[in-house]
Write a sequence for this structure.
């Protein structure tokens, strides 16, 4: 499953917080002017939907700084660790 | 914030907090508004009967019948924080046995978007005007007031009395019941 990296997570959080706050301010002012609180709620819900689309799926812009993992070091004793796993598998199999 | 679910959780919780703050803002902008409006009540007919009352401790109680006209403009009360108004017409008077009596005679619910100019003529009361005893006969002063309860989207529900009221005396004699 694709995940975002740390810089991408921070960017996603900033994006959705900004979108929702802006839509909240716009919604509050618009609802106050036309005297209907329902419109305030609709505008905030629209901001929520836009934020969902922009931040929930792991877009490529959030994966620009991947972590550089260290290269794998091959283990010196590989044989003994396999036998306990085989016996465990036999016990579960019914 | 690494998985979709954790991002979705964070986004949803933030939106809900922002929505709560907006609702509080909506409440604050209308919390100190004066919700009184002038009201005009006019009574055209008053009748009094003395009937069997099965709900009280005595055999017969006074029952009043009032026909009234009502006109008021409720438009200034409605703003973005008002969902509906509950209007009621109440009669207030004093008798020898009780110092204060209040009886609701009629009520109406006015929703947002409905016609806010009330202009009702020859309305009969919706509820029985029973007295606790026989104190309506020859009562000099019965005051009718229109009050309302404001039901908001967010905040307190104030109970407001309209600024017009009418006082009237009740007749001295009972009507004999006619069967036709």
């Amino acid at each position: 499953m694709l995940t975002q990296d740390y810089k991408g997570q921070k960017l996603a959080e900033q994006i959705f917080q900004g979108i929702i706050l802006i839509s909240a301010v716009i919604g509050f002012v618009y609802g106050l002017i036309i005297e209907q609180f329902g419109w305030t709620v609709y505008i905030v819900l629209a901001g929520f939907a836009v934020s969902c689309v922009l931040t929930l799926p792991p877009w490529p812009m959030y994966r620009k700084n991947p972590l550089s993992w260290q290269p794998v070091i091959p283990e010196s004793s590989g044989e003994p660790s396999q036998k306990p796993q085989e016996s465990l598998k036999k016990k579960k199999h019914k | 914030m690494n998985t979709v679910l954790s991002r979705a959780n964070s986004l949803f919780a933030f939106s809900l907090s922002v929505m709560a703050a907006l609702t509080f803002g909506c409440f604050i902008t209308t919390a100190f508004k004066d919700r009184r409006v002038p009201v005009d009540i006019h009574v055209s007919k008053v009748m009094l009967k003395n009937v069997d009352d099965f709900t009280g401790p005595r055999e017969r109680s006074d029952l009043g019948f009032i026909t009234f006209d009502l006109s008021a403009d409720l438009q200034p009360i409605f703003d973005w924080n008002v969902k509906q108004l509950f209007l009621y017409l109440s009669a207030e008077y004093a008798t020898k046995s009780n110092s204060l009596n209040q009886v609701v005679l009629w009520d109406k619910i006015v929703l947002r978007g409905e016609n806010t100019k009330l202009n009702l003529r020859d309305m009969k009361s919706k509820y029985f005007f029973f007295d606790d005893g026989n104190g309506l006969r020859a009562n000099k002063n019965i005051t009718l007031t229109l009050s309302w309860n404001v039901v908001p989207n967010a905040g307190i529900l104030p109970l407001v009395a309209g600024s017009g009221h009418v006082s009237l005396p009740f007749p001295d004699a009972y009507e004999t019941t006619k069967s036709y």
In short: The two ends of chain A are 31 Å apart (CA to CA). The helical segments of chain A are 6-34, 37-55, 82-92.
